TrEMBL record, chains A, B, C:
InterPro entries: Cyt_c-552/4 (IPR023155), Multihaem_cyt_sf (IPR036280), Multiheme_Cytochr_ET (IPR051829). Residues 443-462 are annotated as: Disordered. PANTHER family: DISSIMILATORY SULFITE REDUCTASE SIRA, SURFACE LOCALIZED DECAHEME CYTOCHROME C LIPOPROTEIN. It comes from Pseudodesulfovibrio senegalensis. Residues 1-24 form the signal peptide. SUPFAM superfamilies: Multiheme cytochromes (SSF48695). Residues 120-181 form the Cytochrome c-552/4 domain. This is Hydroxylamine oxidoreductase. One of its GO terms (molecular function) is oxidoreductase activity.
Length: 462, 462, 462
């Protein structure tokens, strides 16, 4: 960009300011330690030299990473920590081959396959601390507190593994001293690790490049935030933000330092990360995506994050909304921002009052009258209709309005809500009027999944 | 591109030819005025210096624009014009702060927030003249003449604002001397401005960069031309054109001069703009997208643009088809082009005769027999079915055939038409055979929208 | 890429190894002939000089191609071959214009419009040989052996031409010495050419650039592999592979030599071509996409490719799976690969046993009981439901699991399968319980297509 000099100046100023504010806000002045030592132990050289041959791609990825620039070697992340349960036995065997280069015992260091946020926190403590309290990190707990598919065992374990757990994460287990293949490999954002930490930083910063650029691109979020029930990537791509991103992304300065990525200077229109995670102006970078959010647009009844029962946010929605407004104000005027929130709040209000509550009341009535059966969810057509009203089109309507995507707000959103609502109410009234019990699917397919809540999460909580 | 030298030569030749033809065709030789003066008034310097600090992004955007290169300052667009109703009062207050840099009264110039096509026309008269007669500019009028959602008040004002009006535009209003926040901000293509002009050039040339490159990229059109009812961007991306664009776009010369963007030289496969707007060969650039079109594929019954009642084109479809053929012929042979139009015409004919007309006849019969109720549209299932037949899958079928996207022509198009037609006819016949009135949804949700046709448009017309 | 030197070294090594292996495996040592002669006949100069003026885009495309670098001229591909039926008469006429540059008879060479794989095989024999036995090349035969739309004449010829045949290809015909416009132009992958060869290399390597880069990009495959029934491009874009492609594609070395495109070195994450076609490690490049495949995930009942009755693969699935595993192992560890196949095989098994077989049994029962009519397919609602169960959501479930796209495996896949299965079984049981014949759509629209199997394919076979 032509304005790069200004950009850097402002960027540095922002970073300094951000640092200063962070210290003030969190009240822990600290003497920084940051020096790059260029030597490395012979065991690390052994890793590198052997993997340069054996897995040239991983080596090439690493050479391009900031880790390599800072002399962070394989061992800095993979060396087993005290108590690690997933130390690789296969890997150890290589060191009994004295006839091979680096095959001697003296090069051996025990290695853990799964690198966890706890491992990453040795160098990135703030990111991990923020992430740990996010909905991302705790998504398995949230899912089990809410989801009828899991709690009712309505889908199979393999449907969960190739579907749900791919994004939400697995609970890692060790069987016979090896990572249990029903739980590993997995890089879901809420993975429960053997060391008790939550998540996988490589969900967004794929190994072994660990790029900030990648995590700043919307497609990265779009791995999981897509489809009929939370189409944030489709919504983003449709919005003015997404349009400008598509037209100008090749000019974006993707590698600006963390906390110093500046709207208008480093990029024209924001990506997901810009608004939800990146530092901008006086708002600091966060890895807790629950921040800056003022409505739970994914919940059946839209509530404030602090009132979201399965995982109440530990902050006040007004504080978070003010943060987000500061982000908006980096590019937009005050009138624009206020008007946006009027529209969004109105969309939420209309969804809650006009669509959700009357439908919910009707559903409850049907259960109360015994015309719908509570034993299983999804085995009666009206349960599916009700679910799709809030979980599919109801989310699309709210999220479309939230991110200014007219096609999603209307055609995939409220337009579908109207028709779903009408069909739901017609059938429901028919049952009431004729006092008929709803038809139950007698052979619901593949409802074989385990219904045990993961003790690794729920026993700890008790 | 390696062939850049040839490209430039041909480009210049094309531009000269285009100019010559334009003069001949439009019969108004004119002495050109075009000189760039480098000075600027101190008020303009004040704008720039203050906004460089306050809104660094806007400043950065402007520095990258052709406007900045041509010494077009903030004032050249934002200075209030005689009679402007939206002069910013907030902005004026800054000039009572003599203690601030540029805060003195002498830097004050009244500013209008909303820059309109009329403002743009001071430098870009031809573009604005063309645009003013397009369906884009007049879309609010068209919408109110056609749309049952608006005319029946079947959705809420907020559903319209976050949905319809986002693309189609609002009718700007001033309340208490300020732009009414229910109408502003908005950058819809048909925005009715306070000065009577129609549209917002920043819909496609986003501020403050105003890039021709952006408007040439298909994603820009895809902001509005997407989704179940007019998925032009999905259709384009699927087509051979879109495939080649995706593979080679990084080689495209996006910044070729307006009118000189040459297929084969500056780019391999066309984008939306290439065929519908850009000058190509002897066909001149137009900002009236109604040009080059020979069927109204969005209408219920497909008609010629001159026969489209809500907004009849002021041209003959054969003339426009010949223009489009000349565009095709820039890359394709004559046989190819003729064959394409045979397929497209056949698709239109079959849609009209086999799907639309029999379904329309059945709908009319149901109304005539009193089995469907005419009071409201959308509150009986068959009305929704009929609507989606022409408005959703019927458009996809026609548009898919039109832009050579087989998946849309068939799977999202005629395939869906067949099933929709069958279900519609089954249910309709059932009503007729049993002489039963259709069920009416008694509590159609959120049907609260204003049904007043905008007097700014419709009173003017009378 | 920083590691380019290593990359080239490894690339060359790979290529040499690949060559060596190929010779060993196929047992035909050959003396290579490869020399580039720089002269060209005056007829070729005439083509180039005239088309440089007349079709500047085609000329520009060619100048950028490897063909031009290797001195391959228009004539090398377009010169009519003995027996060609599609020699252009229009073109010949230009050579009677001695007053035009190159208009003299001595520049005349007979030209065939349609360049076929047989033509391409003069220089690319291995690619054409591989392609000829692929499902791509033989897709028209497969389609006619399977498809109820074609065999029942349930759609119109134009619906087929703008839909099916666009991807699958036409059977080229000559009428009055010209290519029949109902069959040409077409670049479908299974086009039956007048010389008996199958396909069109320009489906993926668009003319006149013929780029290996283009064919390596996923969007190229996505021209046809998209939509409700085989959404491989959507699935890919959602996967971790697609995410990394989107974030890093600008760093990819797209122009690495055929057979030498090396994962980790030339690119981070694979594209469609990387896994299904490109040479990688010891696995050789193939243009037969049936290779490396171990399940027919597009078939109603998932079977091994060798057991796919309409076109049984001439190889063993275990051999092919081992090939694919070797591809995976270029980037992934053994445990990762084995675990992937456990999930995929389980998804296939559950689809077959839990969803497809019970639904198929019910369909057969309905036919046996006379409650469904076998005369036509698609004219009874349950036939459509059954079709979509396997052809739409059942494919999405299997393909989503196959390419690790959780949203497709679950929300667009098994989630939809469950609801479809339930609705199908409810309606089917209702017919059985009430002994009612299913309603038949009496006026199935546009069921006018020709039902004659192409004799060019089926007579040859007998």
């Amino acid at each position: 960009m032509r304005t790069r000099t200004i950009g850097i100046a402002i960027g540095i100023a922002t970073a300094l300011l951000a640092t200063a504010t962070a210290f003030a806000a969190q009240n822990f002045p600290k003497a920084r330690e940051f020096r790059i030592e260029r030597g490395m132990p012979e065991q690390a050289i052994a890793c590198i030299e052997c993997h340069k041959q054996q897995t040239a791609g991983i080596f090439a990825d690493w050479t391009m990473s900031r880790h390599a620039s800072a002399n962070i070697t394989c061992l800095d992340c993979h060396q087993a920590q005290p108590g690690d349960l997933d130390i690789s036995r296969d890997h150890e065997q290589y060191y009994s081959r004295g006839d091979m280069p680096y095959g001697e015992k003296r090069y051996f260091i025990p290695i853990a396959s799964a690198v966890t946020p706890k491992d990453c926190s040795r160098c990135h403590p703030d990111e991990v601390k923020q992430y740990a309290k996010s909905k991302h990190a705790n998504t398995i707990e949230i899912m089990w507190k809410l989801d009828p598919w899991l709690n009712g065992g309505m889908n199979s374990d393999n449907e969960r593994k190739t579907g749900c757990y791919y994004c939400h994460g697995t609970v890692l287990k060790v069987t016979d001293g090896k990572l249990d293949s029903s739980t590993w490999p997995n890089v879901g954002v809420g993975r429960v690790n053997l060391d008790g930490s939550l998540g996988s930083c490589t969900s967004c910063h794929t190994r072994h490049r660990f790029s900030v650029m990648e995590a700043r691109k919307p497609e990265t979020c779009g791995q999981c935030h897509l489809g009929p029930d939370h189409p944030q990537i489709e919504i983003y791509n449709e919005s003015k933000h997404g349009d400008i991103y598509q037209a100008f992304k090749q000019e974006y300065n993707w590698n600006s330092a963390p906390g110093a990525w500046t709207p208008g200077i480093d990029y024209r229109a924001p990506t997901c990360a810009s608004c939800h995670m990146s530092g901008s102006g006086s708002v600091l970078t966060t890895h807790d995506v629950t921040e800056r959010i003022s409505w739970e647009t994914q919940a059946p009844l839209t509530v404030r994050p602090q009132d979201f029962k399965p995982f109440p946010a530990q902050t006040d929605w007004k504080v978070e909304r003010d943060k987000m407004k500061k982000i908006c104000l980096q590019c937009h005027g005050k009138a624009w921002v206020e008007d946006f929130y009027v529209d969004f709040d109105t969309a939420v209000h209309e969804y809650n009052e006009v669509y959700f509550k009357p439908a919910k009341k009707m559903l409850d009535d049907l259960y109360a009258k015994g015309l719908l059966d509570k034993t299983k969810f999804f085995d009666e057509a009206l349960e599916v209709e009700f679910y799709e009203l809030w979980h599919h089109e109801g989310r699309r309507a709210r999220m479309g309005a939230m991110m200014m995507a007219p096609d999603y707000a209307w055609w995939h959103g409220f337009y579908e809500c109207k028709h779903r609502f009408n069909r739901f109410m017609e059938e429901a009234r028919h049952l009431v009027d004729t006092n008929t019990k709803a038809y139950r699917y007698p052979d619901f397919p593949n409802a074989t999944g385990d219904t045990t809540r993961p003790p690794e999460i729920f026993n700890k909580k008790q």
